[in-house]
Amino acid sequence: MAMSRLSVEIKSRWWLPVYIRMLTLFCMMMRCEPDYQKVGDFIVKYGISQRVKSEPVKEITE
Question: At the top level of its lineage, which domain of life is listed (predicted)?
């Protein structure tokens, strides 16, 4: 039976923590709430990168 190893690599962009802090500061200053759906979509689209790797596992034969 063929087996493979699957790994997922997720990285955030360097500017993501700065963006979240500035958004929090702006919302506190303006006394408003962000549109969480739009913020989440933006972060998923531009703020994180993901890569999936698949490699075969060696079979042990005796």
Answer: Bacteria
Instruction: Give the DSSP H or E segment for 9.
Output: strand 4-12
Element (DSSP H or E) covering residue 54:
strand 48-56
Helices (H), 8-50: 16-30, 36-42
Q: How far apart are CA 62 and CA 44, in angstroms?
A: 47
56 three-state secondary structure: strand
- Confidence (pTM): 0.69
DSSP letter for 35, please.
Answer: -
* Residues of the chain with confidence (pLDDT) below 70: 1, 59-62
Residue 10: name the closest of 40, 62, 53, 39 by CA.
Answer: 53
